[in-house]
Design a protein that fits this description.
With 285 residues, this protein is of the alpha/beta class. It has 12 helices and 5 strands. It is elongated, with a radius of gyration of 32 Å.
């Protein structure tokens, strides 16, 4: 804390973003500045702007050797990177080079009772209360992409909520999620209740809807949870699986592997049946 020291900090409260720096000389406060930023700014960029304003202050006042202290490791790492695409980072580097004195950037751990850092933190909080924006930026490319994706997901979710189709699938997947991809033929059969399940085939091919066990309609739930034909696949399922929803069964990794095997065997069974029927038709000719 000997000589000139500038502490920087930022704050985001209720969507409002502010940053500040405070100047000390031998532990005595000399000056401070507060800046209100527009809401599109991230905390990281607010930290960077606080450092930028501190550097510009040093440059404008022809100060000598100054230590600028920030509690943002990310901002300092960006400024220490050899290559950086963001103009604001490169501009700060150029301003530091052009200063007559020597500027040192130092990291300080946040919220450890450091009086001078707490002063900067309090000023940053006060900056969020400034009525007019001191510094305004257009949203970054990543922010525009994020907001665009959010709008698309919201519209997609509304369409999914209002749709009267795919009610079965909606019970299993009620929230749209671009990260959830089921690249699995057998699990998709369950999610759609299509394909190899006899109940679905009966609607289109004039087949019986009765399960091969002869007891119930061959629905998804009956095949997976009730049919005696597939008891062997359920032997290693965790206890209490009978009370688990179909959604929970699918999301259980061990059960999901077993379900793939069950449906694979069911598919082979249906294909063999189809093949025998075809051979019978040919023999009649």
């Amino acid at each position: 804390m000997k000589g000139l020291v500038i502490f920087t900090d930022c704050s985001k409260m209720e969507g409002r973003v502010g940053c500040a720096f405070v100047v000390f000389y031998n532990k005595t406060e000399l000056d401070y500045k507060k800046f209100r930023l527009n809401e599109s700014r991230t905390v990281l960029m607010a930290e960077v702007i606080a450092i930028q304003k501190a550097v510009q202050y040093v440059k404008a006042n022809d100060l000598g050797q100054v230590n600028i202290i920030s509690d943002s490791r990310s901002a300092l790492m960006a400024l220490s990177a050899v290559e950086e695409a963001r103009d604001i980072i490169n501009n700060i580097k150029e301003d530091i080079k052009e200063c007559k004195g020597k500027i040192t950037l130092t990291w300080n751990r946040a919220h450890v009772g450091n009086f001078w850092n707490e002063c900067a933190d309090q000023l940053a909080k006060e900056a969020t209360l400034i009525s007019d924006e001191t510094i305004s930026f257009v949203p970054s490319r990543n922010q525009i992409r994020y907001e665009g994706n959010k709008i698309i997901k919201d519209l997609w979710q509304n369409r999914w909520n209002d749709s009267k189709n795919a009610r079965w699938t909606k019970n299993l997947i009620d929230k749209v999620n671009v990260d959830r991809l089921y690249g699995d033929f057998y699990i998709i059969q369950i999610l759609m209740a299509h394909g190899i399940f006899i109940e679905y085939q009966a609607r289109f091919f004039e087949k019986t809807s009765l399960c091969s066990c002869g007891r119930e309609t061959g629905t998804v739930l009956h095949v997976i949870k009730e049919s005696e034909i597939w008891i062997s696949y359920r032997k290693n399922w965790p206890s209490g699986w009978q009370f688990m929803s179909l959604k929970d069964l699918i999301n259980n990794a061990d059960i999901r592997i077993s379900l793939r095997g069950l449906l694979h065997e069911l598919l082979i069974k249906e294909l063999d049946l189809l093949s025998s029927i075809s051979e019978t038709d040919v023999s009649r000719l």
